[in-house]
Fold each of these.
Amino acid sequence: MTSVENNNGVLNISYLDAGDPLAVPDEQTLAVVSYGTESSIDPKDDRRLTVGLPVIDGNWQHEVWRCNETIDSGMSGDISYRYTDQLLFGQILLDDDAFNDMEHMTRHIYESILNLQTSRDYPHMLRIWNYFPWINRVADGLERYRAFCVGRYQALDTSSGYEQHLPSASAIGTRDGKTLVYFLASREAGKQIENPRQMSAFEYPDQYSPKSPAFSRAMYARWGDAEHLYISGTASIIGHETHHRHDYIRQLDECLNNIDALISKSREEADIGIQSAAELSGLKVYLRHPEYLEHARSYIHDRLDKATPVIYLHGDICRGDLLLEVEGLYSS
Ligand code: 3EB
């Protein structure tokens, strides 16, 4: 519904209705991300990604990544990707059955991505989305989200200072058999933004995972004249603890407080031209229980504004006591 096309930028993101002509890939398209019951990459056009999360509601359907520079494409192992002089956009889809466990699958994915970044010279991961089945299920004594954290950490180069270069991320549970990861990397570094209300995830105590979650709360990047802010999946966590365990609306309120705090921090640290969550270009609200849609939607409408582009997706959240999570993106 909302187009944020900016002809001077080298990377444009739009949140579009079904039926919008820009949702059909052309030579300027990096990816069209949509949602449905099963994760897939269109075998006839690998720019069309479907994330295996059912849409509950929303005023947009397609997240479209476009670029007005020459785009080339390639394959590296299981990763298909597109690239320009400045950026690399890629995706990987794997069958859960192909690996013994989540830890090894994740390690494989992250090592493959890092190899590609090295060989093509896009050293800076800015934003990554991780969608995998049954995130809260326990296998071999470890919750799958925690095994994911272990595999991701093992793949990373954790030499001194690595924490300052972690991307913004989301990690959400699907209920199909496929794992889909997609990402944006760059030749130039972005700027990490952490949230003063929350402990950095990479510093969490080990009660949440044997190896800490390797992501930043947000990443700021400039593309030509445009500025972008990629806000990670944000939950009702203060410090490192879950708040409002059984209360959907108070969790939602806390997510938005966290996002507003991140935006204020981005204003201090990067002088970004956005004041609050209501000005974000697009939001995704991941709900563990679709029955809470009405409550969530009326809260969002009151707190933000009816025109803010929001999609509500049915997904599992990485801690059993989290009922929802919100991510956002801003493009000037
Ligand atoms: C949290 O703040 C909530 O492991 O990549 C949010 C976004 C969360 C990304 C990840 C986890 C991740 O800890 C969970």
Note: The longest strand covers residues 124-133.
Amino acid sequence: MSEKNDKQNASSSPRSQQWSPESYQKNAAFVAELGLPLLDLLRPVPGERILDLGCGDGVLTEKLAKICEVVGVDASPEQVQGAQALGLNAQVMSGEALTFDQEFDAVFSNAALHWMLNPDSVIRGVRRALKPQGRFVAEFGGFGNVAAIREALERELDRRGIDGAGLSPWYFPAPDEYRGRLEAEGFAVDDMELFDRPTPLPGDVTGWLQTFGESYLAAVPDEERDDFLTAVREALRPVICGEDGVWMADYVRLRFAARLQA
Ligand code: BEZ
């Protein structure tokens, strides 16, 4: 996957992802678990009001809610319903159109920003949502994230005469690019790190593809979909499945802590 493609992807309009709570819980429970270290970087304290941007089914939001007041937002009504079922204050809202005004001490986001293809709208909304000197602490897919999986998907689509490159629903920026965007909106960046985090999957890669790869799968005719999934899985087997049979998604994380300058 070239940098050029990543930049093109940031402005394309792939089909939006639908979330099935069952599929998410079965295939993506690790998302919240692996987000726990981000809470250390956030350092929430009692009395603070925090916005969880892209709260998903609320598993991490619930941990935050034990410490401080937290509001969760997510573009998916199904995910918000899941969060509300945990008793959380959660609402449906696009991260690209946040409506808050100087209400939060911090904005927190785990594994969500890469689904938002207009990063400047997101950062502007976060700036508006924060009180003066508020913090923005987040982790998401960075440059090179799931490159092997994307390549296998796109190669198999190409083989079927479908242009896979334009179908990515994700934005995976390099640190310098994202730092520049944050600074342009008045943030000072205290920490920013891009690191590999190979992530063991609960089963083979098929569950991951079905849970997260809707943009690609939707391009394949219904009757070919099983065959397509099998072909992608087998192309990936020598690349991301270990001798122990454990499938590892080739995750690359971009993690940062920034604060609004006075
Ligand atoms: C991620 O957390 O990096 C990710 C999850 C699903 C699809 C793409 C990336």
Note: The chain has twelve helices and nine strands.
